Fold:
Amino acid sequence: MDIISILEDKKRGRALSREQIDFFVRGAAEHTIPDYQLAALLMAIRLMGMDARETADLTLSMASSGDMLHPEVGGVPVDKHSTGGVGDTTTLVLSPLVAACGGKVLKMSGRGLGHTGGTLDKLESIPGMRIDIPEEEFMSIVRRVGCAVVSQSKQLAPADKTLYSLRDVTATVDSIPLIVSSILSKKFAAGARAIVLDVKTGSGALMPTLEKSIELAQAMVDIGHHAGRSIVAVVSGMEEPLGSHVGNALEVKEAIDILSGRAEGPLKKVSLFLGAQMLIASGITDTEEKALQMLSGALQSGAGLEKLKEMIAAQGGDPRVCMDPSLLPQAPVRYAVRAKEAGYLSHVNGTALGLAAQRMGAGRITKEDVIDPAVGFVMEKRIGDAVAPGDVLCTLHASSEENARETEARILSALSFTKEPAPKARLLYALLTPKGVRELNE
Ligand code: URA
Ligand code: CA
Structure:
C-alpha cells in the first residue's frame, strides 16, 4: 500500500477500500504521511466525494485511531453536538436538565477559536472550575451527578486533529464526508451510545444552504445509525445569536437565569427541544410530548439548577454562582448601544457579532491568547423587533471606555434595519431520524 496510489484512485473518483482508508488514517494519526500528501488527498475527497460505505469506513477508522472509551455510567451515555453558533449555550442549559430527568450526559468539549465561543471557556469563567479531568473521575461524576463537561483528551481520534487542522487551511472544510467523519469519529471514540446533533444553517454555517445542511444532517444520522448508535439531528437557524448574552461569564449567567426560571426565549426553547431528543435517544421516554413535560418539570421544580450546582461543585467550581450570578467575573464598564432611527431590526450578521465579542477579549485570535471571561454584550433586540430612536439595542460589558466605543461601531455595522416590519428569524427547520425528515416550523 502506498499513498500515491491512494491519491491516484481518489483523483479519478474511485471509491477507496477500507484498507486504503486505514492506511492514510494511520499515517495522519502517526504523522508518517507528510502534510502535502494528506492535503492533496483532502482536496481530492472534497472534489470527488465519498460514497456512504467509504464515509462509514473513514468514520470508524478515525474513531479507532486513538483511545476508545467504554463509559460505565449507570445508563446510556448521551452526547449533544452543535456545529457552531454565537451565543449558543444550549449545553449548559440542557445537560443539567437532562441529568435531572435521569439522563447520563458525557460531554467532551472544545475551546473557542474564531467567532464562536467554546463551552470550556464559558465554564472556566466560574471560579475554581476544572475542565481537565482524568477519565476515571469524569465517569464517576457522570455516574453520580448525571452530567459533566470536560476537555477532550488528546488521545481521542488523533487522526482528526491532523486532518482538521489541514482542512482549515486548504479550503476543504465544506465536504460532507470529511465533516461527518470528523464529528462522529470523536463521538464514537468518546463512547456516546445516543447522539443528538444540532446542525446549524444560515450565514457562517458549515454548509452554505439549507439543502446542504439537511444533506449533511441526513448523512450523519445514516452513518451513526449503521454504526448502532441511537442518533437524530436537528437543523436549526443561526440568523442571530441564539441567546441574548454573548461572552463567557455572561453566557453562564444566561444559562443560570433560564434554569432559575428568570429568563425565556429562543435559547430556552431550542435547549428544551434538543434535551427532549436526548431523553428519547437515551430510551428514557418515547414521545416528544412526554420528554418536554419531564424537562419543563425539572426546570420548574429547580431540579435542573440543582444539577448544575452539583456538576459545578464536582468539577471544583463555586456552586454559589447558581444562586448569585454576580459572583461571576464582572466587567468594569457598562455601555448602552442605542438606535439612531426608528425601524425594525431585519438582519444580524452573527459572524460579525462573534468577531466583535472576540475583539473585546471574549475570544481568541490565536490559540495562545488569554481570554477575558467578564467581557461581552447582551442583545436587547431580536430580528423582527420594532426600534425607536434612543432604544437600547445592546448593552456592552467592556474592559474600558475605549474598548466599548470600538465595539459600538462594530455592533452597529453588524445590524441592519428596515422601515417596513421584518419577519422573525426561524429557529428550527427540520428533525432528521433514521426513519426520515420531519419539517419543523418554529
Ligand atoms: N467540527 C468538527 O469537529 N469537524 C468538522 O469537520 C467540522 C466541524
Ligand atoms: Ca457552541
About this structure: The pocket of uracil (ligand 1) is lined by residues 83, 164, 178-179, 182-183, 206 (CB under 6 Å). The mean pLDDT is 95. The chain has three domains: 3-49, 77-325+427-439, 331-418.
